[in-house]
Amino acid sequence: VDIRWNLQLVDTRTNSTLPILTSGGLPKSNDTWSAAMTFCSQNEDLESCGRAADWGSSTWLSPNVCDALGYLQARGTVSLFGDSRTEETSFTFPPRGALGAMIASATNAAQQSSTKERIFRVGEVIVPTRSTENDDEKSSSSSLSWEESFILPGTDYRIMTMTDKDGNPIFSTASLPTEEERRQAKLALRPCGWKL
Length: 196
Fold this sequence. Notes:
Blueprint: E1 2-11, E2 16-17, E3 33-39, E4 51-52, H1 62-68, E5 72-81, H2 97-111, E6 125-126, H3 135-140, E7 157-163, E8 169-170, H4 179-183, E9 186-191
Parallel strand pairs: 3-4
Antiparallel strand pairs: 1-2, 1-3, 1-5, 6-7, 7-8, 7-9
């Protein structure tokens, strides 16, 4: 199932939310963790393609959590995208499930160097690269440069959440009807393997 979730930890003594180091996804927040992923069975998970059997976060400061033990309340929301994937399995033809996701991801990444447009999905791992020496010059005319956005070419990033140009949550740029709208999608990226 494709889901997006938001989570807060609340100290019920003061009814205040515990601060976090990073919000994960969009919208940016000082107290709400947000992310999205395709959840599936363990034999069908493939984390680099955004498929997982479980997934967590260690973004709350341990002194705050320990201080509130016994008085913690978790508050959250879950949003479902699309239909259930209960019938997905790698053992069908054409393959679906983890094997199908891996093939789609490899095909999609190959499209980046062709004239075809690349589709992005929440939860997948991407590696931004510069296609030309003038990438920074081209992007700086309409937005921030790579360095100003804290994006380092060649670094693995997970797409935590995604929105359309108006800030509405989406799970994949495939859900946007035009190429222009897909270009304006906002991706919340988090470096893989880093703990902030």
